[in-house]
Amino acid sequence: MTNKQSQQRYEIGMVGLGIMGRNLVLNIADHGFPVAGYDQDPNQVEALRKDSAGRDICGTDNIKDFIALLRPPRAVMMLVPAGAPVDSVIKDVLPHLDKGDLIIDAGNSYFKDTDVRARKLSAKGIHFLGVGVSGGEEGARHGPSIMPGGPKVAYERVRPVFEAAAAKVNGDSCVTWLGPGAAGHFVKMVHNGIEYAVMQLIAETYDLMKRGWGLNDAEMHEAYASWNKGELNGYLVEITSHIFSKQDEKTGKQLIDEILDVAKQKGTGMWTSQSALELQVPIPTINLAVEMRDLSVFAKEREQAGAIYQLSHRRLAGDHDTFLTQLGRALFAAIIITYAQGMALLAVASEQYQYHLDLEAVTRIWRGGCIIRAALLEEICSAFRTRRDLPNLLLDPNLSVKLMEHQEDLRQVVCQAAESGVPAPGLMVSLGYFDAYRSAWLPANLIQAQRDYFGAHTYERIDAKGTFHTEWEKGGES
To answer: Structure pTM?
Structure first.
């Protein structure tokens, strides 16, 4: 073997050796695959070297040396922030690649940007995969959920690596090829939209416990820990229980009470909302979650409004245990409704963008590693396994029974929130979506009449085919 051949033995290369990239490199190496790492920052390269003791890993801050380490056809993976940094990496590595090599964007890129990059690289003979990775630092190190999209032949090049590194549930790897083009990044985007909504819903239950009922942090810790043992079992509920037991090292108080009530975002939730509007798919709970993060930023205005209106929050009354049970059941109902909205968006996007998504496979790889993993996903998998063309989870016989069993709890909690003045818009809009979706008749006929009245936009009739226009008042607009 020549010296050049001995160098070109690393199975995959990672550009970006921050916490996520470095952890994924260590994960891949732990599963027997030699990995090369590259970062412009020598300190990041040194951190990788320290962490990689005993593993088949090589780190460098020289792009040419990095590419030389990879076995052909080369697979270059990047974990860098979305937008300009992705294009910058592509620009840097492209001169060193050959036709048939592969670039993998494992960040949270906007799916339309992924389409543009894929077309440009394809014209140069370079494969491109847009890959969603969920699980945070812990997932990257010990097994994330991986959502690849792009050319199937390109996925096969790295499939063994991804299957080994991904989270495992009942022996199944939480990764599968999802479809062509930007399918992987679109699925990850919707995953994050669902994540936004579930976090908002959980935050509203916290507010109802804290301001509506007056529970302390220890009591809320116990409530979420108890919920996590039942039907609400899932990563976000689990970590919420842990949050309420964490003490602040600086003040000695509970850390949750020292955190500013301003929530930030990186764009994936907003992109989900934008995409849903473009595809005309209603996802009001997800939209509301995005908007509430926006509203949280207006802290000074909220303070001013509070001083103007000076509305006290009425304490909720009744039995403590009954309330917590009802609140948990309401949360479960709203989470089912949230998943229904997200999966409905995926169903429409799959057809519109020709992704040919297998929604059972999507939910199957979400069962482990990812942020929205939850016991409920087993039932969602079953729903899509039974009916592959299911347009909305609310039409599944089994989930509809569960929702009917819980909808009265959601209704009662929404009423209590409205009476107490504690904001619960996510729970409210979830109930509104449910009631509208199950309504065979909606008052949209009045909206059409109004549109025809002021703009001659016409309307359809229930007793005849075609479009119609009425002169609603003599001399009025037509």
So the answer is: 0.94
